[in-house]
Specification:
It is built from 19 helices and 29 strands. By secondary structure, it is of the alpha/beta class. The chain has five domains: 72 residues, GIY-YIG endonuclease; 62 residues, Orthogonal Bundle (Arc Repressor Mutant, subunit A); 183 residues, P-loop containing nucleotide triphosphate hydrolases (Rossmann fold), CATH 3.40.50; 180 residues, 3-Layer(aba) Sandwich (Rossmann fold); 87 residues, Ribosomal protein S10 (Alpha-Beta Plaits), CATH 3.30.70. A hairpin with a 4-residue loop joins β18 and β19. α1 crosses α2 and α4 packs across α5. The longest helix has 16 residues. The chain is globular, with a radius of gyration of 27 Å. Bound molecules: adenosine-5'-diphosphate and zinc ion (ZN).
Length: 721
Amino acid sequence: MNRARLLIFNAALGPLDYRVPEGMRVQPGSVVLAPLGPRQIIGIVWEAERLPTQEVPDSRLRPLQGALPVPPLKLELRRLIEWTADYYCAPLASVARMVLASGGALRGPATVTEYRLTDRMPERMTPQRAAAIDALQGEQATIRELSEIASVSEGVLRGLVNQGILEPVEVDCDRPYIRPRPDFLQPELNDSQREAAETFSSAVRDGGFNPFLLDGVTGSGKTEVYFEAMAEALKRGRQVLVLLPEIALTEAFLRRFEDRFGAPPVLWHSSLKSTERRRAWRAIASGDAHVVVGARSALFLPYDNLGLIVVDEAHEVSFKQDEGVRYNARDVAVMRARFEKIPVVLASATPALESLQMAESGIYTKVDLADRFGGAQLPSIETLDLRVHPPQRGHWLAPPLVEAMQERLEKGEQSLLFLNRRGYAPLTLCRHCGFRFQCPNCTAWLVEHRLSSRLSCHHCGHEVAPPDTCPECGTADCLVACGPGVERIADEVTERFPEARVAMATSDTLNSPEKVADFVARAEGRAIDVIVGTQLVTKGFHFPELTLVGVVDADLGLEGGDLRAAERTYQQIAQVAGRAGRGSKPGEVLIQTRHPEAAVIAALAAGDRDAFYEAEAEARRDAGAPPFGRWAAIIVSSEDEAEARDAARTIGGTAPHLPDVMILGPAPAPMALLRGRYRYRLLINARRSAELQKIIRDWLGGLNFPQGVRVGIDIDPYSFV
Ligand code: ADP
Ligand code: ZN
């Protein structure tokens, strides 16, 4: 009798056993079809001894229905799935689902029908049709995708197909990618770059788990250096994965990659079309995708022969996923490299304290690039005390910053103003009665966006048009905007310098690869004088004429008291400062603050990174915070306030009393209401010696809650809202 135990994609069901029919061959990792009641489900064959379930007698087993035409998941990946589920207290099924991230790919090679516009026009033009045709210029995709792009029903599009306005195109899902060429355009490296590149390349040649922290100042050529390690992997026929923190950065990366390797890499991110996703997935699994550049989800794909992982801007918070499986891609990348027995490079100019600590304790090898490439100097950094240099009433830029901008405009150089706040103003209130516009679904003010004339919630997307009268007291023309967002700063720049060409760079304005490319081209072509941007512009961009960076409000990130606030502020300001003076002209950075004496601001101004990290390490050591101690959060939520509160109390009431563990809460979360769900939090602070995950599993495992209650576990949390 031949049995197979399956990991299936329904976390609630758990693993199930099946009979392998005569003539069918499966092995651990095989992706198979199996019956479940009247349905057919997909499962992964797993080592039975690693996946406990209730024993079912042979006679009651149902037979598998067939194997899917994809390579079996390799041992290394199966162990990574297990480790991730175990470490982050997540269901195995949820982790496995991230691996099989393309339903289409599992069905094997195929063609799909996509549609594109012809040059015919409909006989009867309706406004809907006109809008659709307008929106679909230059697009080619399936009907479903086109209907999303054009925001019209599939029916409307089918009508256009029938009239020959849209024509079908058969697309081969598995057409091969062009192979990048390791020697296409090799740069001349300077001495320290060459030394670093050689360290990585020999690690790639030798194989074996080998984690590196590439710690190099902004503009030192970290990218050029890890490109050499990638070239080495390519020469050996091994695949390379590069993780980037944001899709907005991929555009600049792609260009550099193509210049260096003569072909584009394979992209992986959440907004890929289903055909692209399927093509990438299959090429990754077969080994025909040589270099994959992606967001954190690219980490769980079934690479055939991975030889190197690079995590660029490894300190970035966006590597932490805060929904579903709450994992940190930076840390899982290191674990993947460990299972695959390959090198991994974490690159950053401002590494996380956790990463520096790993280097200090000898677990990671630290590789330094201390100087900018080509003799460019790091910018000079000064603080501007807003109490000494107050901006004019209703304005936000202090006089010395305005003067410095004036100078740049006269010399034809560029300035960048950084404020990490989208929209026009973070709060709108009624001058007459004090009414404040709040989101009905979240504990949050509505943010005014003047460009789109909307008041919107940045947490759930709720939007309203700003009313003419106060909804509370009915007074007309009484609403005032409080505080600045980037739109308001851009307005101030235009008011002060009417001749200046101002560009805003936020996720609202740069929301597609085309718009990013256009922005970069205009900035490089000196068609922009002043850039006003959020954290989107703090990294990756290289504009040689940019010589002034103004930080509008350095204190913003320090509010809120989250564990990593100081570190995040340091990183953000150091990164944005790193945009100044990257060419031949020296850069200047002015930091507006009310607390020039705060440790993080003082360290930035003194250019004393070590002082900052030492102070930060000491503070964290005292608090038992990572990397010296460990944190975990439990987030309880429900649409019903009382239900959430009761569940949180039940959890709090059954908390274990252990010497190495301190449990805080439950308390209403700072975001007590988020997307219509009421939230409570507990925070666990444990010594490193404690078996944190086991403690949490034992604690929560025996508890039962009403259906509407969700209990999320966040190991090594980054968000405390
Ligand atoms: P980082 O990632 O450390 O900020 P980059 O790799 O972006 O640095 O390099 C900064 C700039 O210097 C880029 O424009 C890059 O092309 C250029 N550069 C760095 N090293 C070299 C080199 N060896 N030869 C030519 N250009 C280089
Ligand atoms: Zn909201």
